[in-house]
Specification:
This protein is mainly α and about 260 residues long. It folds into two domains: about 70-220, Cytochrome c-like domain (Cytochrome Bc1 Complex, Chain D, domain 2); about 230-265. The protein has helices spanning about 1-15, 15-50, 70-80, 95, 155-165, 180-190, 195-200, 210-220, 230-235, 245-260. The longest helix is centred in the first third of the chain and has 35 residues, at about 15-50. It is elongated and about 95 Å long. Bound molecules: heme C (HEC). Heme C (HEC) binds near residues 92, 148 and 150.
Amino acid sequence: MACKVKIVEGRIHNFKPQLFVMKTISKYLAVFVLLILSQSFNFLENSFISSFNIGALTKEAPAPSNNPITPEKVELGKKLFFDPILSANNKISCASCHSPAKRFADGLDRSNGFPKGIKTLRNAPTILNAAFNGIDIDGNTDPEKSPQFWDNRALSLEDQCMEPLLSTAEMKGNELPESAYIESLEKKVTSIEEYRELFSKAFSDSTVTIERITKAIATYERTLITPIAPFDRYTRGDVNAMNALQIGGGSIYINWLRWMPPRLC
Ligand code: HEC
């Protein structure tokens, strides 16, 4: 009993009204701040998904009507993409500058061109998701108006592919004029039996043309998509794929882009 009194006395003795008020206020303040934060994350989360109408990439890229995606064309395009025989010196393939080991880029400030020692004027971007270049706010991509290159100078993957094949600094070199080079390239590919078979499976017959080469490579590129990033999984409904900070950060980032002048974003 004596002990109890002592404690009560002790409490009474130590009681400081100002401190009590301060502690209570700071407790409520902390709860209030947490509430505001959670509310703003809720708000950000909602605006992230609904207001911006932003979502995951589709798992398949759209293809132009004159070049539908088929497994046979993907197989041919993949082989061509990695094959250095598409260059005049038989040493440079598309993958030399767009290597899977470097996320389909090359990690250099400027790529090593052709002949040895020549550098490209710009650096090689990744070609992952290049099939979605030009995607609009509703998630639609027109494969015939899909801008390629840093300056958007090609308007489809097929058109783009023609450039490195015929660029003197990349795969063509400068020994032959363009028409003679195209003829020699088509002959070189035709001379390989495996290609004749793959071309006849992918197209109506085994004829090798530079247009068919670009169509097959573009088809393979349309399979190089990354639909499993945390963002994609989250926007497809896996609520645990991103945490509150990531969602808040994403929302702030997108809000920023919305208010930025178009040239800056
Ligand atoms: C010697 C290096 C090199 C080779 C070989 C090469 N590229 Fe590139 N690629 C580049 C560079 C550099 C750019 C950027 C050039 C520019 O924007 O002017 C580029 C850009 C691209 C782009 C545009 C991507 C985008 O998002 O804008 C695609 C697609 C592409 N290359 C595919 C290919 C294909 C297909 C081949 C083979 C036929 C190929 N490249 C061969 C260096 C190379």
